[in-house]
Amino acid sequence: MNTKTIEKEKLALSNMANTIKTVSETIAKNKKLTDDNSWINYQFALYGGASNLAIKIMLQELNIRATSKRVELVSHWLEEDNFHCPVEAVLDIKEEITSTEYAMEIWTPENETLPEHYLNRVKEIISEFDVAA
Questions:
Q1: Deepest in the core among 29, 39, 45, 128, taking most CB within 10 A?
Q2: CA dist 39 to 25, 75, 132, Å?
Q3: What is d(CA 132, CA 118) in angstroms, rounded to the nearest whole number?
Q4: Are residues 34 and 1 in contact, defined by beta-carbon separation less than 8 angstroms?
Q5: Which residues 6+ apart lie within 8 Å of 13 measured at CB?
Q6: pTM over 0.85
Q7: pLDDT digits 0-9 by tens, 62-110
Q8: What is the C-alpha to C-alpha distance for residues 94 and 88, in angstroms, rounded to an integer?
Q9: How far is 37 from 43, CA to CA, in rounded Å?
Q10: 3-state DSSP call for residue 21?
């Protein structure tokens, strides 16, 4: 896959992650003003878009064509398997970007980095469930 494209997408993902972190911090600071949960829904919508881009990047890094069906398939199974931090995995951020109350460290096995852990799971998902999506 084209490494320049992946690097550009990672830069865009980094910008999205910074925006999500800022929104999370703003929500935490203004809890009294954001009582109706709509701000939290906006935060999740932002993270959902960033998550899809992160999955697309992971598929490209594995030299797998990132079709919308594959992104949806991987997204579903990552969620089912409690892999909730694809954005952080691609950017190799050790703490959840949506957590503001305290640092939520992301668990990984001792023998893998966060990106390796997610890439290995994505490979498994594709080999188990992908039928030429």
A1: 39
A2: 11, 23, 38
A3: 21
A4: no
A5: 50, 53, 54, 57, 87, 90, 91
A6: yes
A7: 999 999 999 999 999 999 999 999 999 999 998 888 876 767 888 888 9
A8: 7
A9: 10
A10: helix
Beta-ladder partners of 95: 105
Per the CB < 8 A criterion, the answer to whether 73 and 130 are in contact is yes
Contact 74, 55 (CB under 8 A): yes
3-state per-residue secondary structure call for 31-100 = CCCCCCCHHHHHHHHHHHHHHHHHHHHHHHHCCCCCCHHHHHHHHHHHHHCCCCCHHHHHHCCCECCCCC
Count of C-beta atoms within a 10 Å radius of residue 56 = 21
